[in-house]
Fold each of these.
Amino acid sequence: MISIKKYIFAVLAAVIMVPVHAGETIRLATTTSTENSGLLSIINPAFEEATGIQVHVIAVGTGKALRLGRGGDVDVVLVHAPAAEMEFVKAGFGIERQAVMHNDFIILGPAEDPADIAKANSVADAFKRIRQSGSTFVSRGDDSGTHKKERQLWSMADIEQPGGNWYLSVGQGMGQVLRITDEKQAYTLSDRGTYLAFADKLELQVLYQGAKELFNPYHVILVNPDKHPHVKAIQGRKYIDFLTGDEGQSLIRSFKVHGKQLFYPDVIK
């Protein structure tokens, strides 16, 4: 029979081994690109194992993710729309904004390329060619980071309010937009990560890429506990520290689909 002293030591050892925040859950509002690409299915289990803190993911467009942060409905946001992020922080709803990773946007379309955008000399020229050809363009139309970038690119092409039968605003996440675009053999703007995750199921081709205007950075922000005292700031910071720390950055660097890297870590130490 085990002695009382050994029993007490065993209990204490078990308690010490349990992470301080085991059983806690944080709420993460993030973009559909981080979810659809499969990246979070690699990062979050590693974080949960290391800390005992569970991550409840709400994958929506960047605009909605930031609105959830404004309302105090989440603890952390991971998004990719720098201007909107900085406005969010400036208004006092978020703190400690940090760079995490980047990829880029690409313009996809059918192999036949009826708008001839593969010969475009700029992003603006590519968008003008799509409009002038009357080719179908599928927009996320959901105030996501990708949608915000798309509106910016139309503006660069001197097309402030795209609309008409050729322009389909579907209000869907990136994965569903890729499926719709593929079915219609249309054009769309996508982050490269989600495209690579879906590429083996699509006939769409990358027709325009590489311009500096297509750079796509992701940042993580803690929802301000001074605005919303119920925010789990300690646990949220642990998640941010993990994403921007050696292990999180290594996971981002090594995450590949079909042998291709989807995201590039941005923390320089």
Note: Residues 11-18 have pLDDT under 50 and may be disordered.
Amino acid sequence: METKIAIVGAGASGLLAAKKLSESADMHVKLFEKGKQVGAKLRASGGGRANILNTDIRPCHYNRPDFMERLLARIGYAEVRDEFAAMGLRMSIDEEGRVYPATLYAPTVVNVLLEQLGSRVEVRCETPVRTLRQEDSRWRINDEPELFDRVILASGSPAGMIVKNQRGYNDYLTDLQIKRNPLIPSLTGFRMMAYPKLLFGCRVRANVRLLQHGRPVFEEFGEVIFKEDGISGIVVLNCSAHFNRLASKEDCEVSIDLLTGDGDTQSDRQLREHGSLSGILHPKLCELYAQQPFDLRDFRLKIAGTYGIESAQVCSGGICTEELTDRFELKRYPGLYAIGEMVDVDGVCGGYNLFFAFASALAATAGRGFYA
């Protein structure tokens, strides 16, 4: 007897789930996608290069380390890598362990997934899911004439969307009364208090520390991008992920070491011997230093908050992990699953969030439980 499956959302997790289910001859999968094309975020991820994985996948890189520890005991980097390798996707790894398609072209990943779907998967774009209700032990989506035996929720979050498009996102969950944590922007820049606007357009590579009450919370080296009212860059985005995990956001600041790797007295020697810092600092930082000297090893900026969801790469929040089994099935709703960015699991930059999208899809569709 044919099993009817609905997948809500044709992003990274939804596409891989559809691919896995299409491998079974008794499955018919209908993939509902709100947008005009599938995999829109995946096509744009990693600056258009799709940083799909990282060789260093560990629970500490995520906001829910206990939940991730259980997932990684079953599905880790090797399992996801091998899944894509079996589809014919060649991958390349950079010096920091980030994994990309060898083409360095994000649509390659989408194309490989689409080619694997087969005739048992029906893709319906521009079909938003407005209602989801249970009828006996099956599920009805919108006013579809057919009922579905299983439903996988993979419609992601509104991260990166303009404010107008965020309204009503995933409202179909409301009637189910599933416990969810509020969505807040993660992997986004910081707005700063008393910010020196003359730094707008400046870019530096520096060691950055997130501090609260003067104590370090997180530290990483990378590029800092100075914007009109705050800072961004991968290292700052990772700081924002750890900022989100703080119980209180009071008295937080970033400390930027602009002389990482240099001797403690280099700035003094530079000024004594050359009369300026032009040879070691960006011109805009030199201009700021001339106006109000600051510690080049501990340049501090007070955090006013993060940029909004429209600027975020992912959201923190979503369906609480305690609502789910280890196979991503809703405990109170047998036959209903939630994967990817639907779940309150978010990681730092570097392929960690796409890894979770893919790993959760594999976990949800693995074994005999889904097919019973």
Note: The domain at 3-184+313-365 is CATH 3.50.50.60 (FAD/NAD(P)-binding domain).
